[in-house]
Design goal:
β4, α5 and β5 form a beta-alpha-beta unit. The longest helix has 18 residues, at 170-187. The protein has 9 helices and 5 strands, in the order αααβββαβαβαααα. Helices cover 43% and strands 13% of the residues. It folds into 2 domains: 2-45; 72-223, Ribonuclease H-like superfamily/Ribonuclease H (Nucleotidyltransferase, domain 5), CATH 3.30.420. The protein has 256 residues and is of the alpha/beta class.
């Protein structure tokens, strides 16, 4: 069998095609009758690998990452629909480092004034850094003279994602997805009033939910100074693994 695989490898390798046509040739040429998984296993055992061309697109493996809380903020608006088809607009400002929602406004109408009011409250409630950046998308609410004039007065540097920088505003979009699928959609709000009455509890629950990306800490804990440590539980996990193996070796299963 390895000789057969090698023969087809030599014939097809220079053509830089995928290996699944080789599997098809095995069957049609009656050279071998094996499953496709067995074919790939033989190719792997023989060290046969197809050389891939270098990817032409630039791959941004790591997105925007702040080194401390309140260093980089994200702002966006999302629209939610209730069961009676009413629209609810949720205005959110979140912190990049902690993923914590710093400020939010909710309304049944699209209002650019709420964007400014949301920033004003965040500025009052938190001590922002001198070089704090505000990442926004290119929505019409972020291109008004009202917003630009206000940002100049509070000394916030606005950066439009995918225009001033190549990265997107995906941080706040990710938080919107979490709000939708973990909190909002399961509750199935009947009216906009029901949504507005529950939004405070939803934001509080999101801010106090442990996140894997924060290595088990909650957004509020990280915002208030705790640093995520991916090595914090490694010793306990390694010790537990040794103990489980020791227990399993000392006991037999029911069928033994």
């Amino acid at each position: 069998m390895p000789k057969v695989v090698k023969k087809y490898k030599i014939d097809f390798y220079n053509m830089t095609i995928f290996f699944n046509p080789i599997f098809c040739c095995f069957s049609f040429d009656k050279a071998a009758f094996i499953s496709i998984s067995t074919c790939y296993n033989y190719l792997k055992l023989l060290g046969i690998k197809r050389e891939k061309h270098k990817h032409r697109r630039k791959n941004h493996k790591k997105g925007l990452r702040a080194s401390a809380p309140l260093e980089m903020l994200h702002m966006d608006i999302s629209i939610f629909k209730t069961i009676n088809n009413a629209k609810v607009y949720l205005y959110v400002i979140c912190d990049n480092f902690s993923r914590c929602i710093l400020g939010y406004k909710v309304s049944t109408k699209y209002d650019v004034g709420l964007v400014v009011e949301n920033i004003r409250e965040v500025k009052q409630n938190y001590t922002l850094l001198k070089n704090t950046q505000l990442i926004v998308d290119n929505g019409v609410e972020n291109r008004t003279h009202l917003l630009n004039d206000f940002l100049d007065t509070v000394h916030l540097h606005k950066i439009i994602a995918q225009i001033h920088i190549v990265e997107s505003n995906s941080m706040v979009e990710s938080i919107f997805r979490q709000l939708k699928y973990y909190h909002i959609y399961p509750k199935q709000f009947e009216t906009a009033t029901d949504f507005i009455n529950e939004i405070n509890a939803i934001i509080d629950e999101q801010s106090n939910r442990p996140l894997h990306v924060l290595h088990g800490l909650t957004p509020l804990e990280v915002l208030h100074g705790q640093l995520p440590n991916k090595h914090a539980l490694q010793n306990n996990i390694a010790l537990s693994r040794v103990l489980r193996l020791d227990v399993n070796r000392k006991s037999n299963c029911a069928t033994c």
